[in-house]
Amino acid sequence: MAKSEGYVSAQYLKEAAQILQKFKERTYELMELQSGQHILDAGCGPGVDTIPLADYVGPQGSVTGVDIDSEMLDKANQAADVAGHAQFVRHVEASVVELPFKDNSFHAIRAERLFQVLPNHIDPNVVMKEFVRVLQPGGRIVLADADWGTFSVNHSDAALERKLVAFFAGQMRPNGYAGRQLMENLIAQELKVTTLEGHALIQTDPEKTTVGAWLQKTALEAGMATQAEIDRWDGEIKTMQAEGRFYSSVNMVIAVGHKA
């Protein structure tokens, strides 16, 4: 299937999983999982979450991951085989706007960093309606995403920093402001919001952030920054990296909704 405009590689997702490990574990906790339950991970990628989630529900339950990328799903199925979970962990190629499951199929649904990469032609409310449809009464939906509008970088040129951050959030992500919208997504479906949390993701290594070549090249090509500005931006970041002074942060949001 064709890659969406927010596509990232399986390797990127695996590396991001290491950085976000504690954040991910918090989303697992908020699902309040029990042995024997059936759960859905929407936008599962290469299975970096479906495999650990399997330990919560055990072989009496099931974990289903959905994604539109067949290559990602192949990697996810391989991971399930290696972990010995293939009998109760499955990965399905499907769109989140039309889930191939019966009503009330799952005890809990999880979607992490899904809404920021949804193509612009997809209405988040349509996705949420599908989540509610396949969720059992009394079940919970755990949404987690970044608010890239809160991304900040310690840089002496504050105006340039704000310009590049706004460009990344507004134009390099299909929805860079997804994190701040999660509560609204739940309320729009008349779900009871029981948890709303913000987690600061702090990085001191610029190579683990979005401040490098991708942002610089894209901003330059779009005319959002001059070559002189990019050179100044990159030069200072490299100096701070060499001297151990680099700092960046972004707010990661978790919102939990219950179905009556």
Question: What does this protein look like?
Answer:
This protein has helices at 10-19, 21-30, 50-57, 70-83, 124-134, 158-172, 178-188, 213-221, 227-243; strands at 38-42, 62-67, 89-93, 106-112, 135-153, 192-203, 248-258. The longest helix is centred in the C-terminal third of the chain and has 17 residues, at 227-243. It is built from 9 helices and 7 strands, in the order ααβαβαββαβααβααβ. It is elongated and about 60 Å long. A 7-stranded mixed sheet has the order 3-2-1-4-5-7-6, with helices on both faces. It is an alpha/beta fold. The chain has a domain at 10-148 and 173-200 and 251-258: Rossmann fold (3-Layer(aba) Sandwich).
The CATH topology of the domain at 10-148 and 173-200 and 251-258 is Rossmann fold
The secondary-structure element order is HHEHEHEEHEHHEHHE
Highest-level CATH class of the domain at 10-148 and 173-200 and 251-258: Alpha Beta
Mean of pLDDT? 94
Shape: elongated
Structural class: alpha/beta
Radius of gyration: 19 Å
Summed up, the helix count is: 9
According to CATH, the homologous superfamily of the domain at 10-148 and 173-200 and 251-258 is Vaccinia Virus protein VP39
Oligomer category: single chain
